[in-house]
From TrEMBL:
Residues 2-183 form the Glutamine amidotransferase type-2 domain. It comes from the Bacteria. This is asparagine synthase (glutamine-hydrolyzing). Belongs to the asparagine synthetase family.
Length: 527
């Protein structure tokens, strides 16, 4: 929904050029920049107008002028929370979720965060003291970073806004909140512990009970995310998760459109075209020929995404093309199927760790989504003024998934078996039978982008992103190197690929691309 930029502390008002640069770096996240300036505080947002578009101006100030809020994301149950506020005798001035965030935090403190069903990050500033309360949604769908420089606290939605400070940049972890004084480091703590999801609830070992709970919970997670008068898009790969998302969106919203990116002849385009034709849903295809992707695309994907793992960067190149098309189509809100693989065992690694470690691996992957899959989705969508919503990562879904045992997630040779079973009457057979295939592979674009992998470190360092984290190998590779010993993999020091690893990788990519060049004339001749 927005991008955030905040500078707090003595002399903040003298940092106008720095602040304007921070806003410029996040301006693609919104349609309009809105600011509040004072001698010792600079607050700004790049606002994407979705909820109460005419009135939810930011930074939003409380009725008495004491508090100012910079808010990114959406709280989907804001109507319910507003009704609770009114029942307690509190008044509101708008229909926006922005105001609800401010008023509920003032009324209920940290308990308000547990009452919110949404994807959010915000900074709530007490204007007299310049203290600030920072908070981020439970799984980290929306980003939030901070840094201290020259005695002032700087807060922003993206690392790139803080790189010019020349100091270490820190992430507000998912499910964390806390206070900071002007110019001091925030004291953050978890208000919801991702690593204890479902811990106090009984396992759902009965197949039909688990399936019914999954069907009800996911349907509701989609419902609250399409409660808008805007047209809703769905990122459709034709795989299980995105197809199911489209099926539910079509049932719950009167105006939807699907978007698919890929090379002609790729699995994704074939499956997506078949499904949208069967459903009668408008389908925007974003065709990309592998040879069209070059170093410029890779550089821009790294700049926008700030990602630290190679596989995510490759996927970001593909996502950039996709969300640019969504923006051109005039769609502001899209739903994606991201998160299902992490919750329901879509990756091979889940079947290779020892049985007693399976739950811990699920929790590890969920705990790191904020800097991998979710970071890719957030940056590449918001970088084109599009808000991507992820129903599979609704907090109710998170809790439910951790109560479903591994044997229901992988069964009869299928990953995510319980998802297929729960929606068997809704999913076409060709979708239900399709196995997991990673995004860049199924789009037919992976091997082309892999040519440029040896250049990733230099490009990444050139943007200054090491101030937040180093570029490193994919966790799946680290886990494999440690023979799927989760403790050893998690405790290992992050490292980049070696020269030898890059060389082997490049050799494989070259072989594939040279073979593709040979195939292309043959294909044309045969046609």
């Amino acid at each position: 929904m927005c991008g955030i930029a905040v500078v707090l502390g003595a002399g903040a008002g003298t940092q106008q050029a720095l602040f304007d640069g921070m806003l410029d770096s996040i301006s693609p996240r919104g349609e309009v920049d809105e600011v509040l300036r004072a001698d010792d505080a600079l607050l700004g947002t790049a606002r994407l107008r979705i909820v109460d578009r005419e009135h939810a101006v930011q930074p939003w100030t409380s009725g008495d002028g004491r508090w100012a809020l910079c808010f990114n994301g959406e709280v989907f149950n804001h109507g319910e929370l507003r009704a609770r506020l009114h029942a307690e005798g509190r008044t509101t001035r708008s229909e926006s979720d922005t105001e609800v965030v401010l008023e509920t935090v003032l009324a209920w403190g940290e308990e308000a965060l547990l009452a919110m069903r949404g994807e959010f990050a915000f900074a709530l500033v007490e204007r007299d003291t310049r203290r600030v309360f920072l908070a981020r949604d439970p799984v980290g769908v929306k980003p939030l970073y901070w840094a201290v420089a020259d005695g002032r606290l700087h807060v922003a939605s993206e690392v790139k806004a803080l790189v010019p400070l020349g100091v270490a940049v820190h992430e507000v972890p998912p499910g964390h909140c806390g206070w900071a004084g002007p110019g001091t480091q925030p004291l953050l703590h978890p208000y919801l512990d991702l690593y204890r999801l479902g811990e106090d609830q009984p396992e759902l070992t009965d197949v039909e009970q688990a399936a019914e709970a999954l069907r009800t919970t996911l349907t509701d997670a989609v419902r609250i995310r399409v409660d808008t008068d805007l047209r809703v898009g769905v990122v459709l790969s034709g795989g299980l998760d995105s197809s199911l998302t489209l099926l539910l969106v079509q049932r719950l919203h009167p105006d939807c459109v699907a978007f698919t990116v890929g090379a002609e002849g790729s699995e994704d385009l074939a499956y997506a075209r078949r499904l949208t034709a069967d459903l009668g849903v408008e389908h925007v295809v974003v065709p990309v020929r592998p040879r069209e992707l070059g170093l410029r695309d890779v550089r821009e994907a790294i700049r926008v995404s700030e990602l630290t793992e190679y596989g995510d960067i490759i996927n970001a190149v593909v996502s950039q093309r996709l969300f640019a098309a969504v923006h051109r189509a005039g769609v502001k809100v899209v739903l994606t199927g991201d998160g299902s693989d992490e919750l329901f065992g879509g990756y091979a690694m889940y079947r290779r760790v020892p049985g007693q470690d399976a739950r811990r691996l699920f929790l590890h992957k969920i705990g790191h989504l904020s800097r991998t899959e979710l970071q890719r989705v957030d940056r590449t969508s918001m970088g084109h003024g599009v808000e991507a919503r992820v129903p599979f990562l609704d907090v109710e879904m998170l809790d439910l998934a951790m109560r479903i045992p591994q044997e229901l997630k992988h069964r009869d040779g299928y990953e995510k078996w319980i998802v297929r079973h729960a929606f068997a009457d809704l999913l076409p057979g060709y979708v239900a039978a399709r196995h997991k295939n990673p995004m860049s592979h199924s789009s037919g674009l992976h091997e082309r982008i892999r040519l440029f992998r040896p250049l990733f470190p230099r490009i990444y360092d050139g943007y200054g992103y090491r101030c937040a984290a180093p570029l490193q190998r994919d966790f799946s590779e680290v886990l494999k190197d440690h023979d799927y010993d989760l403790d050893a993999a998690a405790a290992s020091t992050p490292r980049d690929l070696t020269v030898a690893e890059h060389a082997r990788d490049l050799a494989g990519a070259l072989r594939w691309n040279l073979a593709a060049l040979v195939r292309r004339p043959a294909d044309r001749a045969g046609g």
